[in-house]
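Lecture 7 notes: from sequence to structure.

We start with a single chain of 257 residues. Read the sequence below before looking at the structure.
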Amino acid sequence: MSKADASTPDRRGPFFAPELVKAAVFDIGGVFLYPNYSDVQALLVELGVARTTFANHDDPISYRRAHHAGVAALAAASDLQRTDGVPEHTEQFWLTYDRAYAQALGVDDHLIDQVRVAIRTEWAWPHLENIEAFHRLARAGLPVAIVSNNDGSAVQQMADHGVCQVGAGPLPTVPVIVDSGVLGVSKPNPRIMAPALDALGVAPEHVVYVGDTVHADVLGATNAGMQAVQLDPFDHHADYGHPRVRDLAELARQLGF
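Now the structure, written as tokens:
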């Protein structure tokens, strides 16, 4: 997008105009934290699941790829494209994700139910490179905040994994960490973005929201009038047309940091 185009972005759909960005808001899952892969890895060995062209079970990146395959499957589920929130608490929602995750690792359909148990481990595997890039953005002076569809533990997660904290401390400081489990509103409902926008004191069109999903993150930011960028490291969403980056280092470069 040129500077001339960026001055009057198309607010009818997702847009990213780096020249207009004055603050950034980040999701947690698929950005800073992923599902633990060690339990899945151990079960695949136990079940005798063969490695595939795209899935070396000894390589953690295969499990990161599997997560994003699950996210892509959610994007393809048209019944999840709602503006009032998505049924992330339902079994059907996670079955869609788990099935695609398992299939990306070469798991046959008859074994998926067994593997789903291992997939559903705590999201506590940090993406260290993304955390480092986030620290660089925050310490360079870009105002940042966190908004996550979560279970009430977002503040603790960010502290435990060395991402950020609200208030003084050793980590980059953010004015707010918004957790849907605390607020009672989930993405893509735009109301979940309001506390972050208020805390940052920046107009929505000057704030970029960064997350890994279409149904919650891209749609949620767009509903709130914010800029939107999807983390799509394996190009699962190349046909969607909305702004994407491979990682937060690429985002930082585009923002001039």
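The first helix runs from residue 3 to 6. Keep this in mind for problem set 3.
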